[in-house]
Amino acid sequence: MINTHYATGSRSFTETLRKILGKDSASLLKYFLSYGGATPNAIDVLLMDEAHRIREKTQVRYAKSTGRLQVEDLLHAGRICVFFIDDYQAVRRGEIGSSSFIRAQAEKMGCTVYEYDLESQFRNGGSEKYSQWIDHTLHIRQTATTEWRQEDAFEFRIMDSPHALEQAIREKVEEGYTGRVMAGFCWPWTKQADADGELHKDVVVGDYIRPWNADENTKGMRRGIPKSQYWAYDEAGIDQVGCVYTAQGFEFDYAGVIFGNDLKYNPDTGEWEGFPENSYDGQVKGSENFVQLVKNTISYFKNMFIFRNS
């Protein structure tokens, strides 16, 4: 029997998979940081999803570091290591798992490297043109698709208000599709529930007032509100606005995105400009690559209805 593990850098995605598949699946569904003390070649096939989220070093509380790079720990643990990478979807400072970095480290360790391009994405209904247009519009990369022409498989709409945005998503969910409202990290995130057990409503756009999804450390919330790691899977998650860290790894049929004020397009210069003073993301706002990281965050959400907060 082949010993195969699946590893990610996402707590929400991994814990949701474990919940769906049962507690015994925890031995097969792991994190990138799970392999610091692994025996060499202990895993026959190690699949690493969203490997662009690999960190420089594995840091686990109360555990001794191997002193190696995290990617070295992974290559050390697996006989065959498969890295799924999107070089344009690192969204936090310290995520260094680029194709070139992983390739260089693998070759340095004497590994034989095979590289393949996946030409379409499931979340885009297989439309490479849609991905190209999003990336081109955000100036992430130059592509041949400079304009979007509506296709049957997609709905892309810019909404007049966040109320209209949420209503459109709720209607799609009632029709049997999956959907959530998400936003850039442009509002504070209260970690203590209100006295009545409800999540504090931090996301405020005019008279649109909603809570973020629960944080993993949120205290005092009532029963029925999904924990942070289950927000994307639990039906009650539609009542909160999600952040990219909670949504990352999941697929929704429809994503409603509140486009915050940390990234704006300047028509005079033809460039996207970053405003870290409008960001509440401590992992990103101090980065010298702030604009690129915020662009990557927005590009992560596909099949979008958008409201621009201006």
Kindly state the percentage of residues in helix. 10-25%
Shape: globular
Q: Pairing-aware structural class of the strands and helices? A: alpha/beta
Q: Number of helix segments? A: 7
Instruction: Kindly provide the radius of gyration, computed on alpha-carbon positions and rounded to a whole number of angstroms.
Output: 20 Å
> Into which percentage range does the β-strand content fall?
15-25%
Neighbour order of strands in the largest sheet: 2-1-3-4
Q: Mean of the pLDDT scores?
A: 89
Distance between the termini: 56 Å
Q: What number of structural domains do the residues give?
A: 2
Q: What string, H for helix and E for strand, traces the elements in order?
A: EHEEHEHHEHEEEHEEEHE
Q: How many E strands?
A: 12
Which ranges are low-confidence, i.e. pLDDT below 50, for 5 or more consecutive residues? none
Largest sheet entry: 4 strands, parallel
Molecular structure report:
- This is Schlafen group 3-like DNA/RNA helicase domain-containing protein.
- The protein is α/β, with parallel strands linked by helices and 310 residues long.
- The chain contains seven helices and twelve strands.
- The chain has helices at residues 11-21, 70-77, 99-108, 128-137, 162-174, 244-247, 290-300; strands at residues 4-8, 29-31, 43-48, 78-83, 157-158, 179-183, 203-205, 208-210, 254-259, 263-266, 271-274, 304-308.
- The strands form four sheets. Strands 2-1-3-4 form a four-stranded parallel β-sheet. It has a four-stranded parallel β-sheet with strand order 5-12-9-6, covered by helices on one side.
- Strand 10 (263-266) and strand 11 form a beta hairpin.
- The longest helix is centred in the middle third of the chain and has 13 residues, at 162-174.
- It starts with a strand and ends with a strand.
